[in-house]
Each structure stands twice: as structure tokens, then as C-alpha cells.
Design goal:
The protein is mainly alpha-helical. It has one domain. It contains five helices and no strands.
């Protein structure tokens, strides 16, 4: 019970950081949203079923549950997309000023 509450609080914090990251150029919003999703999938059967039903995320979630994390190729893709998102947000914020 306490474990689920702590996971929900951490997931909520990641969710807030993820939403802020979609607006602020210094935070990687997508990464925090993904971490929030994994936290909520840990405690909620409904979220877990939705995540396992998604063909894109099903394999990654299975690896995560087994403790194997992300494959190397997915890590490179994630680094690329997070860098691209940060760059676009930084360029966009400079244009606004």
C-alpha cells in the first residue's frame, strides 16, 4: 500500500515534469512522460493492459519488467530524439525573445 502510494507520487512528479518539459526548453518532456507511464503501469492494471496492448511499446515494457532496460539501439534513438527536441525548443525560445 505504501509502496503503491510512493510510486504514484513519483509518477505524478514525473508527469508534472513532463508537462513542464513540453513548454520549457531546458527539460526533456518526453523522457519524463515515459517515466511517468512506466510508474503508473507498475501500480495500475488498466494502464499496464493499455501499455501491453500498444504494439510499439509492448516489447520495451516487457524488457523493462524483466530488468533488462532499453536495448542499445533504442537508447541511441532516444538520445537522438531527446537532443532534437531540446535543440528545437532552444531555437524556438531564442526566436521568441
Amino acid at each position: 500500500m505504501i509502496r503503491n502510494l510512493l510510486i504514484a507520487l513519483v509518477g505524478g512528479a514525473f508527469l508534472v515534469l513532463g508537462l513542464l518539459g513540453l513548454v520549457l526548453p531546458i527539460l526533456p518532456g518526453f523522457l519524463f512522460l515515459l517515466l511517468a507511464l512506466l510508474c503508473f503501469a507498475t501500480i495500475s492494471p488498466r494502464v499496464r493492459r493499455r501499455l501491453e496492448g500498444n504494439p510499439t511499446l509492448r516489447g520495451l515494457h516487457a524488457r523493462w519488467r524483466r530488468g533488462r532496460g532499453l536495448p542499445l539501439w533504442h537508447r541511441f534513438k532516444l538520445m537522438f530524439w531527446l537532443s532534437a527536441e531540446s535543440t528545437v525548443q532552444a531555437l524556438h525560445s531564442r526566436r521568441i525573445e
